[in-house]
Amino acid sequence: MERIISTVRTHIPSGLTCLVVVFGLFGYLGYVMGTSHMMKTLMATAHDLLINTCFFLMAVCVVTGAIGSLFMEFGVVTLLEKLLRPLMKPVFRMPGVASLGAVMTFLSDNPAIITLSRDKRFAAYFKKFQFISLTNFGTAFGMGLLVIVFMIGQGFIISPLIGFIGAIVGCITSTRMMQGFVIRAYPNYRNEDAINTYGHENSDNEEKKASTDSMFTRILNSLLDGGKSGVEVGVAIIPGVLIISSLVMMLTFGAGADGTYDGSAYQGVELLPLLAGKINVVFQYLFGFEDPHLVGFPITTLGAVGAALGLIPRYLSEGWIDGNAIAVFTAIGMCWSGFLSTHTAMLDSLGYRHLTSKAIISHTVGGLVGAVFAHWLYVLLTVIFPAMPN
Predict the structure, then answer these.
(1) What pTM, to 2 d.p., does this model score?
(2) CA dist list (Å): 107 to 25, 148, 149
(3) Cys-Cys crosslink for 289: which of 281, 294, 367, 386, Cβ 3.0 to 4.6 Å?
(4) What pLDDT does residue 175 have?
(5) DSSP string across 76-103
């Protein structure tokens, strides 16, 4: 009886809190949009994200997994380790080979870092505290090439480059902060090798066996094995993207063009811009945002930066965007490119799910620092070069 009473006392408060939050959130959405329209919009948004975002990310994971595996099979990893070691260690406190993760995520998307982390040859270069912080390091450059090229395509040249510098600053902040959390919680991880995490004691024998295969066999095996790993990762990130992005978009966007709700995808209640408007002075000082609607970009970026980029044309048509906003968007877009789902999936696959909150806190701070740095760097450059183009 005492055990039953204790269980009831333990679970009733959390259960009631959960019910209040869930019914409060969806009750509000249903009240504003109408229950049927809310459900249609939620499903339509999730479906569109699945088709146009998640499957795209899965394709990215497959391709980058194959390329990364090929690079590691033929010694590109070792080459990067030797060339970039002088820069990586003092700045990021990471082995030089970690730069491969930055390159792959910059060229594709941050799930590529998950694919790389599951390769024992890549993991062999890391201490445990470095390997865990690789989540923060790699995701800070996610879809960087796409973001920069997209911004340039909108007519901005200098601002995206300023944002890229801000993303690097944010990456340093996030990675170092996460490493500090890990070392304080597990001091022994400072010296323990990450390879032990996977238990690949026979990796040397496997590499020797691979080296005796023909060139064609090595290429084929590395591409197929890397691609297979990418499929697994692509499936793992789907829940986070669908759940987080759908809710964020419904809280950011408003009704249809005619001011009514019809159940179409990406309609919502505009709650986040409303709340941001209450403290707009904060966003204006930190980021230089002149309109509270702009807060929708960084929030949407938490789920998928590709979806956030879709906001830019509308922002431009409304006249809300200038060069400063583009610099901030580039910095925070790269740092926060769907990192919530990536961090959860990666740390879960590594066996460190309990450190997910630390990784999220570190990366949240890193993205904010990168965005603030990009804003004030833009302001400084416009003071020094008044005629500087955007």
Answers:
(1) 0.72
(2) 37, 11, 11
(3) 294
(4) 94
(5) HHHHHHHHHHHHHHHHHSS-TTHHHHHH
User: CA-CA distance, 119 to 100, in Å (whole number)?
Assistant: 13
Report how far residue 138's alpha carbon sits from residue 154's, in angstroms, rounded to the nearest whole number.
Answer: 26
Q: Using 70 as the pLDDT threshold, list the residues of the chain that sit under it.
A: 1-12, 57, 77, 81, 111, 196-212, 233, 236-237, 240-241, 303, 307, 341, 349
- 40: CB partners within 8 A, 6+ apart: 263, 264
- Name the one residue in this structure whose structure tokens are 């304080």: 184
Decide if 301 contacts 272 (C-beta within 8 A). no
Measured between its terminal Cα atoms, the distance across the chain in Å is 70
SS3 151: helix
Rounding to the nearest 10 degrees, give the CA dihedral for residues 354, 360, 363, 367: 180
The CA dihedral of 46, 51, 57, 59, to the nearest 10 degrees, is 160
Return all residues near 283 (Cβ < 8 A) that are at least 6 apart: 276, 289, 292, 294, 295
- 292 Cβ contact list (under 8 Å, min separation 6): 273, 274, 276, 277, 280, 283
